[in-house]
User: What shape does this take?
Amino acid sequence: MIAEAVLKPGGDAATALYIVAFSLFIFGVKQGTHPTTAKRGNLIAAAGMVVAVVTTLLLDGIGNWGLIVLGLAIGSAVGFVASIRVQMTAMPQMVALYNGVGGGAVALIAWSEIRHGISLGGDIPLEELIPTLFAAVVGSVSFWGSNIAFAKLQDLIPTRPLSVPGQQVINGALLVAVVAACVDIAVNNGDPSQALFIGILVAAAVLGNLVVLPIGGADMPVVISLLNAFTGLSAAAAGFALHNVALIVAGTLVGSSGTILTLEMATAMNRSVANILFAGFGGAPAGGAGGVGEERPHTSIGPQDAAIKLAYADSVVIVPGYGLAVAQAQHAIKEVADALEKRGVTVNYAIHPVAGRMPGHMNVLLAEADVPYEQLKEMEEINPELPRTDVAVVVGANDVTNPAAKNDPDSPIAGMPIIEVSEANEVIVIKRSLSPGFAGIDNDLFYEPNTSMLFSDAKAAAGEIAAEIQNL
Amino acid sequence: MSVMTEVTIFVLAAFVGFEVISKVPTTLHTPLMSQTNAIHGIVMLGGLIVVGYANDPLEYVIGTIAIAFGTINVVGGFMVTDRMLGMFARKPKPKPKAEGKAGK
Assistant: This one.
C-alpha cells in the first residue's frame, strides 16, 4: 500500500492514533448518557472506530489484503443489512447477536494467537498466555451464551427456563475443568498443547449454553447486558495478548460501564445478578404464593365499557409493559391516545424503569409509534400525579404495578419500585388472563374494587377501544 | 510497553468506565448498551492483525472469520444504535406551522 505512510507496530505514531481513537470512544459514551447529545455521541464513537481500523491497516508489514477485504466486506454487508431490517421490538435479540459475534471474534483471535505461539516454538510468555486463555474462555462463553439469548428472545427455542438435573453440579465441574486445563497450559507454557486449548474452547462453549438455557426470557436483558460486559473484558484481554492499547482501553471501558448498567437493570427488577444466573427463575417461586387456583372476585369489562370510561375522563395515564412489547401493540395504543386527545382528554404514559424487554426499550417502542417524548413520564414523575388521575390503563404490565411490593414486606417483590396505579380513581387492566406475572405471584391490584379487568390481547383490545371511542 | 504499564492503563480505564456511565436516564439504557456493544467490536483490530501477519491456511480462515465477526459487531452495533436514537429525534409536527430553523 502506501509504503511511506506505514506505521511501526507499537510505535509512537500508531499509539498516538490509538489514543485519539479511545478518547473518541470515551467522549462518545459520555455524550451517550444525555438525551440531546446521544446521537452525536454514537457518531463520535463510530469515528473513533474508523481511526482505530485505519491505523491498524497502516501498520508496517500487514499483508493478505484479499482476505482482509473479504472479511471486512462480509462483516459490513451482514451488519448493515441486519441493522436496517431489524424491527424495533426485536432490538434486544439483535444486540445479543452482535454481542455474540464479538465474543466469537475474541475466541478465534485467542486461538490464532496460541497457534502462532506454538508455530514459533512454544514458549509464550505468561503475560501474553494468561490473557489469551482468559479471552478464549470468556469469548467462547459469550458467543454461545449470546446465541442462546438470541434464540430465546426470537422464540427459536422455548423462553421458559430449561435445565437438566444436577445442572449446578455439571456447570461447576465444567468450570473447574476449564480452569484446570488453563492452569495446565500456563504451567507448560514452554510447549502448550493445542488440542487441550481446543478442548477449553469447547468446554467453555458448553458452559455458555448451560448457563443461559435455564434463564427465563424476561431475565434475558440482564443476561445480555452482563455478556456485553464480559465480551468487553475479553476484548481487553486480547489487547493484553496483542499489546494493543486501543483494545485494552475500549474493552475495559465496555467491561466496567457494562457492569454498572447490568447492576442498574438488576436493581430496577429487584433481582440480584447471582439470583438470575443461578436460580432459574420460576423453578423456585419464592414465598409460597398461596391461593393460586382459587378464584378471587374481580370485575371484568369489555372494550365498549373501557372506551366509555376513558372517553369521559379528564386525565388518563397509560402504563405499558412487557405484554405490550410482545403483542406489538404500541401503534394501537397510540391510536387510543389520539382518539382520547381529540376529545380533550389529557394522556400521559407512565414508564417503569424496566418496562419492555430492557430498560429504556419501552421508550424506543413508543417513540417508534410517534408518541411525543413529553408524554413519556418516568415513574418518580408520574406517581405523585396518579391520585389526581381519573383512569389508569395498564397494558401488558403486571408486577411493576403490584401494590404488594409496597404493602407486603413478605412478598418476593417487596421493596421493588412500582407505578402506584391503585392510587388512580379507576384502573383498567388489559391482560390475557388473571395469571401471575413474571415474578410468579398474584397481583392484588386485579381484585381491588376500583379495578376492571379487560381480558384480551393487548393489540386487539387497544384497536377495539380506539374504534369504540371514535364511535361515541 | 511493560505489562505493569498495561495493567495501569487497564485499571484507570475501568474507573473511567464506572464514572462515565453514572446517572444515565433509563430512556438511554438500551441505546447506551447497544453503543458500548458496538465499541467492543474493536476486537476486529485483533482479526486484522492476525490475518495481516498470518502465514498458515488455518490462521487465514480463523482470522478472516474473526474480521467478519468483529465487523458485524461494529457496523451493526453503531447503525442499530443510530436507528434507536433516531426514534427520539423531534419529528416535524403535522401542523403547517412555518417554523424558523433553530439550527446553528
